[in-house]
Amino acid sequence: MASPDSKICDIDRARIAKNIVDWKDLSPYLGLNAAEIKEVKESDSGNFLQQKCEAIRKWQQKNGDDATYAAFIVVATVAENKELADYVRELVVGARDEQQCSHTEKEGLLSLVMALTKELKEKETMLQAKVSSAPVCTVCA
User: Where is the Death domain (predicted)?
Assistant: First the structure.
């Protein structure tokens, strides 16, 4: 489960990267210097999603344990990218809600499976009774 103070995982790094419009505008706020920006550009020229991921990865490497969801929200906010900040905030809140709902959902699914299993057994019993009481075909016998 993602918490504001946890480090950004690889999956969320890719999700965040997809929501960055122009990583070069964000890079100074990530603390990337000119050499690092050039390195990111050259790392996978033409693949902008990969460049966005690499920019975030460099920020994570520079900041270590401080490269958290909360810290990235601050970066996006300072960069005046409200949509990105809101998206990352939603990743954290959504993960928390998903974790809380999962137990209730599992209980609901288990109840549904049990009810369907019972219904299938009843139908199977009913069909077996019909088959056993059906007249025997004299042509087939």
Answer: 22-92
As a whole number of angstroms, the distance between CA 63 and CA 42 comes to: 22
The position carrying tokens 């999956």 is 11
Q: What digits encode the pLDDT tens for the residues 69-103?
A: 999 999 999 999 999 999 999 988 875 544 544 45
| 107 found inside a domain | yes
Phi, psi of 89 (to 5 degrees): -60, -40
Which domain does 55 fall in, by range? 10-127
| Separation of alpha carbons 125 and 8, rounded Å | 54
**Assigned domain for 141 exists:** no
Contact 31, 110 (CB under 8 A): no
Whether residue 83 is contained in a domain is answered as: yes
What pTM does this model have?
A: 0.66
Asked, for residue 36, whether it belongs to a domain, the answer is yes
Q: What CATH number corresponds to the domain at position 76? A: 1.10.533.10
Return the closest-CA partner of residue 26 out of 78, 70, 65, 95.
78
